[in-house]
Amino acid sequence: xxxxxxxxxxxxxxxxxxxxxxxxxxxxxxxxxxxxxxxxxxxxxxxxxxxxxxxxxxxxxxxxxxxxxxxxxxxxxxxxxxxxxxxxxxxxxxxxxxxxxxxxxxxxxxxxxxxxxxxxxxxxxxxxxxxxxxxxxxxxxxxxxxxxxxxxxxxxxxxxxxxxxxxxxxxxxxxxxxxxxxxxxxxxxxxxxxxxxxxxxxxxxxxxxxxxxxxxxxxxxxxxxxxxxxxxxxxxxxxxxxxxxxxxxxxxxxxxxxxxxxxxxxxxxxxxxxxxxxxxxxxxxxxxxxxxxxxxxxxxxxxxxx
Length: 306
Description:
Elements: E1 3-9, H1 17-29, E2 38-43, E3 48-55, E4 67-70, E5 78-81, H2 88-97, H3 105-110, E6 113-116, H4 124-136, E7 143-146, H5 162-188, E8 195-199, H6 218-237, E9 242-247, H7 254-262, H8 272-285, E10 295-297
Parallel strand pairs: 4-6, 7-8, 8-9, 9-10
Antiparallel strand pairs: 1-3, 2-3, 4-5, 5-7
Helix pairs in contact: 5-6
């Protein structure tokens, strides 16, 4: 069976938005029971999650990517993905088809394995992988998405306090490196084309820095630039791996809207739905030959300058 199933964080921090996003996602993506593309929704206490599946029409969902790695550093979620039999997904999809799209926290927990990953920790990534192996019997991972990031210091590079740069480097660069190092052997066991994906930001560009020079986000930009270098390095060092960076757009999350306000705009231009749809499409279509080692745009896969 040809199955591609991706779980992508929606990145929201209020208790009111998950239900709204569930309905938004169902209108955009849900197109029939067990027919592609289909969609399931997992709604927790503070965050909404969307799972998007594309598979051959008429074939059942035998596999479900259930491993999620969260951060607890007031930054968005980072997710790990794997295949595991999980018939609970059928029941979730049945409820969506019948119009009952609210899935309880208890039900959502049954659809995934949740393990802690604090991006300020040097050991959480290894501990999370050990937990997946020893407590859940996970032997391989197909896709790892390093999404967690922070942007909390605003001002010119000339006066940026060192402690803010160090904090951004830990979360935005060191943490993705530690995540890859922890998951590398499990990715190598994938029976598909293993993929390691970093959610990047165009503000990290050197070539086109003139387009972003007035943005007071030095610590964020340089830490994302360093992370880009490492992911491209992973590409060259591991012939079996598809490793690349995706620009998700300037997304209407709390962090995205805050950045927009810093630039005098009311909110970010890219909706969450458009961003997630593009990210899913880029990951699904990525290959070692065409995508790996590059920084691509979520809308069409075209490449950004370093």
